[in-house]
Automatic annotation (TrEMBL):
InterPro entries: Acyl_CoA_acyltransferase, GNAT_dom, Ribosomal_N-acetyltransferase. It comes from the Bacteria. This is GNAT family N-acetyltransferase. It holds the Pfam family Acetyltransf_3. GO terms for molecular function: protein N-terminal-serine acetyltransferase activity; protein-N-terminal-alanine acetyltransferase activity. It comes from Neolewinella lacunae. Residues 20-181 form the N-acetyltransferase domain. Gene3D superfamilies: 3.40.630.30.
Length: 192
């Protein structure tokens, strides 16, 4: 464990959101978010749905595992909470951290009612800043389905660059293999 990471922020502020580490007892909020976005998440985040979407208890177990992993410096999961309503509307996860580089993959989604409002742009930019400034990552990357153009536009808007295509990298719930597109963002190109 790196003692320098003991005092990192657990809550990040944007103009309209609080992006923070989950707390015990918040599995019910995550379960509701997953249930409300079941169709999209089943196609794009089947592992999340399988692990946390079965019932509120499964979601609570998932939340507690994310808290433990945060404390163990294995991954960093954030809930996205609206300032006005304090409602959970999104999820961001820095994971598969390779501390020898250091580099991490990022994944994210937002509630279907919050799409195209610019929320995820400000949230993703803030979490990228956290990754570079507080975790001292050298690289953050993401993988998205090749037909997920909104996610690709968002990645570019925040500063990620397309690095390549990954053929037959993802199995859709129906069994079909799909291509992914990889985007990366290096600390050396980060402007702040």
């Amino acid at each position: 464990m790196d003692a320098a990471l003991f005092d990192i922020d657990t809550a990040l502020l944007t103009n309209r959101c609080v992006v923070r580490r989950f707390r015990e007892g918040e599995g019910k909020h995550l379960y509701r978010l997953i249930s409300d976005n079941q169709d999209y998440l089943t196609d794009h985040f089947p592992i999340l749905v399988a692990e946390a979407g079965a019932n509120p208890n499964a979601a609570e177990a998932f939340v507690r595992e994310r808290i433990a992993n945060w404390l163990l410096q294995q991954d960093y999961a954030f809930g996205v909470w609206l300032n006005e309503t304090t409602e959970l509307v999104g999820y961001v996860h820095l994971f598969d951290i390779n501390w020898s580089v250091p580099a991490a993959e990022i994944s994210f989604f937002i509630d279907h009612q919050q799409v195209r409002k610019g929320l995820m742009t400000e949230v993703l930019a803030r979490v990228v800043r956290f990754g570079f400034k507080q975790l001292a990552l050298e690289k953050i990357y993401l993988r998205t389905l090749s037909d997920n153009f909104p996610s690709q536009r968002l990645a570019r808007r925040v500063g990620f660059s397309r690095e390549g295509d990954l053929r037959n990298e993802f199995r859709r719930p129906g069994g079909m293999l799909a291509d992914l597109v990889r985007f990366g963002f290096s600390r050396e190109t980060y402007g702040e």
